Structures are given as C-alpha cells and as structure tokens.
Amino acid sequence: MLLRVPAAVALLAFVPASAPAADPLADVCEKVNGKLVKVFGAGGFSRLNNFATGVLVSPDGHVLTAAGPLLDTADLAVHLYDGRRMKAEVLAVEPYLDMAVLRIKVEGKKNGDPTGLDLPYFDFATAAARPPAKPADWVLGFTNQYEIALRDEPLSAQRGVIAALAKLSGRQGVFDFPYTGDVYVVDAITNNPGAAGGALTDRSGNLLGVIGRELKNTQTNTFINYAIPVAAKVSVTVRVKADGKDEDKTLNLSLPEFVAKGMKGEYKAVQGERPLLGEGGWTGIVFVPNVLARTPAYIEGVVPDSPAAKAGLKPDDLVSFIDGEPVGSITAVQEYLRARTRPGDKVRLEVRRGEGLQSVEIVLGTPPPRVAPAPPPEPKKWYNRARGFTPGRRRYRPGRR
Amino acid sequence: MIGVRVTAVYDAERGGLAASTTAPACTQTVTEQPLRSEARGSCETRGEGGRTVRTPFWAATLALLALSVATPVRGQDGLDVNGANEEAMRAAAAKAAPSVVKIETAGGLEVVGGGKKGPGGQPGVARGTGPTTGVVVDPDGYVITSSFNFANKPTDIFVTVPGRPDRLVAKVIAADQTRMLTLLKVDAKELPLPAVFPKAEAKVGQWGLALGRTLDPDVNHLPSVSAGIVSATGRLWGKALQTDAKVSPTNYGGPLLAIDGRVLGVLVPASTRSEGETAGFEWYDSGIGFAIPLEDVLAKLPALKQGKDLRRGLLGVNPKDSDAYTAKPVVGAVGPDSAAARAGVKVGDTIVSIDGKPTPNFSTVQHVLGPKYEGDAVTIKVLRDGKELEFPNIALLGTQTAYVNPFLGILPLRDDPGPGVPVRYVYPDSPAAAAGVKEGDRVMKVGTGKNLAAVKNLPQLATAMAQFPPGTEVSVELKRKEGDKTETMTTKLATVPDAVPGKLPMPSSAGKAGEGRPKPKAKGGLLPKKGKDEPEEKAEKPETGFLKRADEALGREYWLYVPDSYDPSISHGLIVWFHPAGQGGKDGEGMAAAFKEFCESHHFILMGPKSANPEGWAASETELIVQDVRKVLGRYAIDPARVVAHGLGNGGQMAFYLGFNARDVFRGVAAVGSVLGTAPKENVANQPLAFFVAAGDKDPLLKDVVLSKDALVERRFPVVYREVKEAGKEYLDAATFEVLLNWLDSLDRL
Description:
The complex is a heterodimer.
Chain A (H helix, E strand, L loop, with lengths): L6 H8 L9 H10 L2 E5 L10 E6 L5 E5 L10 E3 L5 E10 L4 E7 L18 H6 L8 E6 L12 E12 L2 E3 L2 E2 L5 E5 L12 E4 L4 E5 L3 E3 L4 E3 L1 E4 L3 E10 L2 E10 H9 L21 E3 L11 E4 L4 H4 L7 E5 L2 E2 L3 H11 L5 E8 L2 E8 L18 H6 L14
Chain B lengths: L14 H7 L35 H14 L10 H16 L3 E7 L4 E2 L12 E2 L5 E7 L3 E5 L9 E5 L6 E10 L4 E6 L20 E6 L11 E11 H4 L1 E4 L11 E3 L5 E6 L20 E5 H12 L11 E3 L11 E4 L4 H5 L6 E5 L2 E2 L3 H8 L7 E8 L2 E9 L10 E2 L2 E3 L8 E6 L4 H4 L7 E7 L2 E4 L3 H9 L6 E7 L6 E7 L1 E2 L40 H4 L5 E7 L4 E7 L9 E7 L9 H15 L1 E6 L12 H14 L2 E11 L1 H12 L6 E5 L17 E7 L5 H13 L4 E6 L9 H12 L5
Parallel strand pairs in B: 31-32, 31-33, 33-34, 34-35, 35-36
Antiparallel strand pairs in B: 1-4, 1-6, 2-3, 4-5, 5-8, 6-7, 7-8, 9-10, 9-12, 10-11, 11-14, 12-13, 13-14, 15-16, 17-18, 17-19, 19-20, 21-28, 22-23, 23-24, 24-25, 24-26, 26-27, 29-30, 30-32
Helix pairs in contact in B: 2-3
C-alpha cells in the first residue's frame, strides 16, 4: 500500500520546523569557519600559489595545513575569521604525510610561550578517535580556493558526499605523490588552487580530514578531489646509515602523532633517502617482446629451475595480478617486482590460462649473474666513446622521481 | 515491527528531497514516540532515543525519515533532514552494491579516442590503469558496462563480483553502439540482479546516485558514491537520462540509483556533438553526466546476447534546409538503397509524422529516429504534391550506402539563360566524350530510357544529374553546335576522376547572369536602405580591389579581394581563405597577389577572415565566419556552386570543419598540409562537397594528411590529392597551384 501525502500537507509539516536558520548546515558552516584560517606565504609566480588554507588545532593558535613551498618564507601570515592578520611560523613539516604544523605568533610573546589567543579550534585527538566516514556520508569542504576569501570573509563552503575511503594513487605532473595512505575521495570539486590545508567535515561540523592538493588520479587519469583523513597512517621505508652501513628501515607515521608532537615542537621529520630500487625479486619468467606501451604480460618461456618453473608457470600464461594488484602490462609486472619485492619474498601470482585464472605462489629468487657481454671494441673515435656503455651497469632509479 | 513495503515510499513523483521532507507514507505500525508532525498521516514509527534500529538497513532509513520531519535538530549530530537523506543514500548504495561489479583489464592502448588538436579536434584520452565498473543484468553471468572501459582495446578482461572470492575471466559478447554499452559474460550463476527503476517514472529533480568500483579495490566495501539529482530525461534524442552527480571514469559503467536503491540507468560518457565510446569524456565531473535507462538496456538484452553489435537504425534522408528547428522537414536527399529509398520516399517530400508523432521540423524527426535500432520499423507519413502518403513499417537499416557523385564529364558554360545548358568543355575519356558530346553543344533534355525531362538551366541540370548513381545509363538530348540538329545520346555515368583537367577553354561564362534569374540582392548586412527613387544600377556597382572589412560590434575583421574585372552579369566563384596559425590579417595582400591573375580571368573573389585567436582557429568561430561569407554572397554576383573554403595548416583544418558544418554554403574544400579534426560526415546528393587535399612530402603531418584523405575517399567524396615534392609546411608550388586553380574552375563539372 502506498499513501501519497499531498504536497501542501508536506509543506505545512515542514514550516514549523523551518523557523529562522532552519537549515542545520548554516549553523555548522558558521561554526567551522571560526576554526579555520587563510594562510599566505611564498610564491605567487609560475603556478605556485602563495595562498592556502589552515585548520586551527589548538586554542593557542596551532594551525595544521598542507606541506608545500609556500611555507618556505619568514613572512608567513594567517588571516583569522575575526579579521585579524597574524604572523605565523612553521613548527613541523612531514612530506610523507604532506602536512605541516604552524603556530601563530603574537607580538610581545616569546616563542614557546602561551599566546593567550583562546581561539575556537578542532580537538584533533578527539576527531581522530571517531570512526571513519563511509561512502555516501554527507560532507562539507571549507577552503580558500582561488583566494576568494580574505580577512574576516568566510571560506568557500562546498557540499558533497564521501565517494570512497581508499588508497591515493595520485600523481603530480610526472611525479608519484609522496603521501601513500588512505584518503577520503569526495564528489565535490574541492581541490583547486589554494584549497590545500582546508577542512573536510561531516554534516555536523566534525573534522574528518584535511583537504589536499590538485592531483591527477593515476587510475583514471582524471583530477581527484581528496582529503587526508584525521587518523591517517602511512608506513615509509627509508634507507638510513647504521654503523656505517646502509639499512632499510620501515617507519610508521600517523597524523595524530604528528600533530601532537608538532604542536610541542618535538616532531622530527623522517630522515634518510627513500631506498633506491634495485632489480627486485626474480621470477625466471621470460615475457614476450615488450613492444607496445601496454604489452600484455604473456609468458614466452620460463628459465629452467627458476621460481616460475617450480611454480608450474607455462608459456602463454598471462600474468594478470600480483598479490591481488592488477598488472596490466609487462612493464607493470616489472615495475611491481622492482619496486615492491626483494629476493626471498613470497608473492602470489594470478595467471590467466585458457578461460580461467590460476593462482600460484612463488618465492622470488636472486637474478642469476649476467653473462658479461664481450667488451666493446676499443673506442677509436670520440662518438664511439660517447655512445659506449659500461658492461654490468646496474640501473638505479631514484626513489623520489 | 517495520514493514517491508516501505521501499515504495520513494516514488518518482516526489523523489529526492521531497520524499525526505514529507512524512513518507509509512506502513510501520509500532508506536512509542508518536510523531508531532502534521504530515504523519496514518503513520507512526518507533524510535530508540532518537535513533532507530539499524536493521534492516533500508527500513531503518525510512524510520529515520519519518523522525526527521518530526524533530529536526539543528547543528547537532542528531536527526535532521540532511541526516535522513544521508541515511537514505547510504542505504540505497548498500542495496545496489551486490550487483555492482569491478572490471579489470590487461593490455591495450595508452591513449584512446580523439585525434587532432585544432578546430573540431578532440584531444586523445589517456586511459587510466584503474579498474572500472559494471552492473549485473542477468543472473547467468551477464554484466553490462560502458564501452569507454574497453576503448583502449584490452586483450583480457576480468570481473570481480561482490561476495565472491575469485576474479572471473570475462568475454565481450556484444556492444550497443547507439548507447555506448558493452555486454560481458562471465562463467557464474545466480548473480544478484539490481531492482529496476521504471523509466517512465524517472523525474527531473529526484535524487541520483552514481556508483563506481574504481576507487576502493575491495568489492565487499560499498562502491564509491557521488550524489546528485536527475537533471533531465529523454536526453541525447531520447536515449539517456542526465544527472549532475559526478560522472567520470571512476563510475562509467556503474549504476545511477534512485534514492530507493533501484537502478535508473547505466553511466556512460556521452555527448550531443559527437559519437563514439570516448565522446563526452571531456565533461567528466562537470555536473553533466549521462545514464542509459536500465529498462532500455534490459529490453535489448536478448538481442545483445546473440553476440551481434547493435547499431543505429538509419532512415537515409537528409533535410533540404540546414535549419533543423523552424523549417519544415522537406527531404533534400535520399540515400541510395537506404530504408527511405526502398520504401519510396522521394526528394521533395515533406515528412508529416513518424509513428504517429507529428514532425514539424527536422529536429523532431531526429528525436523520433534517434533512439531507433537497425531493424526497428517506423511508419512515415509524407506530404507529396499536396497529398498525404503513408509508408508503413519501413525497416531501418544499420548501414548507409554512401552517396557517390555521378560523372558525365562536361563543364557547363555558366550564366546562360537557357533553355538548355551549353557545354564549355568535355573531359577526355569521360562518358560524355564516349557518347560524342562536343564543346558548344547544348544539353536540352536529360533522363533515363525514354523518360527525358527538359533542362531549363544549369541549376536544374545539376539537380537532375545528382539523382543518378554512377553506372546509370542516361540519355542526353543535345542541340548540336553546328546546325540546329538535335540528337539523343546514351551513356553510362562514371565516378568523378582524381584527374583535374589541364587548360580549360575560355570564356567560362556567357555573361548573362542577370537574365532569367533574380538579381543578387544585398542582405544580412547593415547597409543603409536605398531610397526608392535611386536607380538600382548604382547600388549594384560594388567596390573592387583589395578591401578591408570590419565589424566593430563583433570585433571581427576580414579582407576581400574583388578583381577589377568584376562584372555583375558574370557569376563569380568565392574562395574563402583561412590563414595558418599566427598569420591572421598578415597574409591577405600576398594571397590576393597570388590569385590576382586567376581571379581576373576566371571570375573569382577571394576573402580572408581573421581568427579571433592568433594561435589559430576555433570551431566556435563557424557561426560568425558564415555570417561574413553570407554578407559577401549577398553583395556580389556569386555562383553558389563554386564557394570554396581554402586553408593552410591549421587554417585548412578550419576549412575542413566549415565544409562539413556549413554545408549549405560551401561546395569545395581545398586544404594544404591539414588534418581532419573530426570524422567526415557522409556525402549527400543535395549538398555536394568536393575536396582538394595537398601536403608537402616532407611535412611531418604527411601521414595524417594521407589518413584524412583516405577517410574522405572512404566516404566517397570526390577527392583530388597532390603531394608537393621537396616541401614541408609551406604553401603550394607553382605546378600544384596550377592544379588547384583548374580544380577551382572545374568545381561545377557534371
């Protein structure tokens, strides 16, 4: 049975509730705006914006914002929602979280002293302790995109829903993005110039995340609108010197910890290089000639007694997934092995054989020593030398490209 | 405690916000906390401290909705209208999620679709590497998705179904080319079917949720969600719903849901301007998204399962007028062997109705035919000679036989008042030559067999000839030059040759353009009205030489070269020159000098519009350029059969674009070193278009120019192609220029 309520009745029903400021989002926006700042720093040329957005995370004037070149200045300033323009300084920066903590400076107060500002703020620890938002949850974005707001003007508020909470596969130009953790993807177009460091809140004004940069999503090659969640966690492997030896170390970073330590001035950014990528683990698979941009990873043959041979891989098998991740081409397989595996690692390959997918586990080996090619003939002319190559040279790729 | 029937609460009429701010017509029964709302009608619900029980999900949503009306709590994490909507959206996504599958591919191209930059060109789409989305349409393993997801021609396709551990190998069964959809089949049983939202009930303004599987790799999570409303129904000639939810590669192939979780449609990129699987991609996340109604998809499912691609149903008529909105839909051309031709529709018929729907203009004709498939039958009513004729059940065809221009092999002497048309030149080795036609003969009648019709003048002869396909035995009655003997000869029409005649005999015109035809009138311009007393002759003497024209209001400029030999009693050809990028306004005098001799002896006028942007031409300039061209057409005595768009490089690309998009004006396109920005449109009888394509053999674009030429030949346009030796991106050398001039002078060949 379906009862239809006439529209007039429906309206009547709503009127009593819609006295002034009936829309709950209006109150939320006003409240949230008070806890946000406009950030102004270095830049303003060649597509580097000198403006961004920031989130107050203490009554004392600590501001969480996105890391970025605009912070590289002694003239960092923020505009508060009450219209005050204040100087600010950087307390901590963590590129792997793509975040920075700033503190507003008050004249006459020494660095480290309480500022006595008593500003409205988001309690970050409380926000991080809430359960994460889910797809279709209503959200609000607050940013100073395009530098529309100055001084006491409200930031640009946008309404949308959470599209997904998922790993960021972002790309900034040709560079992979350093932050590799989960992000909230939203369906509002929030990530515009100057939006980085803005707030993503739920419809009640609780802080969900900090809005990120303008990035292209490598999965779709389209621009992505995202925020780094308040409870963000990433693990980072870096190469450090220990007892004079290089050693890979995996560090677990979390945004709440960064904020807590950063506010106290105790946070130390991750030191050390990203580990250089070697050749990764060895499978013993010989692929068909890699002639296209996305040559499918068809196996041409396997080296006898190699891990692939032991696992029973055969010519014409199509390597389709490694540890559940799709590898759509020979290049993708090679990249995956080089970047994500080491000899001795166990990986699960899913290969297409005929009409089905076979799953095999293989323990990666060490590549057999290369047969050194015959030494090139003695260079006689300068151009021979210029084109010559060094036998056995290993191809390294820098971690941060 | 909570009724199951409540899903029906969100009916399409109210949909969206309306549903959430009115008390839904509940069927729940319990009562602990009666509603304060006036609108509760007969429903009561039960709350537990303001929150309802979460199971079942869907029912809880409704309970919340009911509550929201009663107690809107502002600014708190409580229940309000927004909360109710949020819950409803989550529930809707959860309801549909089991039928939303993830699709992964291997292999394929990096960049798909699109083509060239420049006017009309589309940049290629760099295809992402992420998974895409599909919707289950049959429990036996059939999944529908957007063809965009396979535009890069992957070698392998895998499907992951929520709740099942394995990836399944998928096969492409068939594509629906009209709706940009592809049907996949996986080896699986009992896949969960989504509920279908009836197409007829979809209303503008109701909620629309776009779901996708790209972002979160785990199919057991909720799909990604973007929320919007239905922006329009019956879009893309009745084929699609439009939504302002963000539609992009993250959800192409996924469902567009109503707020009750039923599927409105399947998301696809689409565009009103072009067709193909990547068309419309440029609108991703813009708030303009499209979905093909699921009801329509299911209706075509049995056909798709047969494994044959579904194609658009074509009637095969082209309009007489280019105005699709105000002019009556008079048939200007009937495609050879088309559905319309088979049924007996003729040029000149006015289409009155299709399937009983009145068609006051050609746009409505397109609207009625747009959603049709190959094999669909339509009933057409036309008006012919004041009488209504009905053609019942015309089966539409999937392909169109290209129109091929016939070739008799003569050039007419222009501007002869008739009766008949004098022959200026006979092509060697042509059907006309074989039949013994000679220069100076006069064509008096033409037809097939014994059915000959008298020829009044040149336009009439051209229209009559265009109706005969190559290979037709035509009979021509000639009045011989010597003596007044009249003979009838029969010959078989050929196709237009690639060869361009060498030196053509002069004069080309009988110089009597004024006779038998209304005088050309200035129109469209802002010329001051002439007083009635002023002799007409005075107004008819326009300026000659190199002239500059500017429209200050629109900020447009063009130059014009009118030879000093201009004579209004001779019809002139018009060459519209599109300068290459960066040459706007600078190359005018040079071009005029190059063409001067030819313009004077062969009666051509040259004009050169200037691109608004110095970097080059934009397709959007078409309208204004055509306005300028029409102004010139109105001012001077110009032969509509010899209006040519000519350009170099980017200008040539614009010339191509204009040729196809202002077909009522242009009869020829001469492009040097230029590439087609868009796929060529089809060749039609009533708007003939001939091409002269040239490129330097060292031009890096040569390969693409050749591809463009081949595309034109494929569409059976008459194309003359010349490669310039030892040349790169410059204009033609002397020898090729000579060919161009002769091509220009022979455009009205029959």
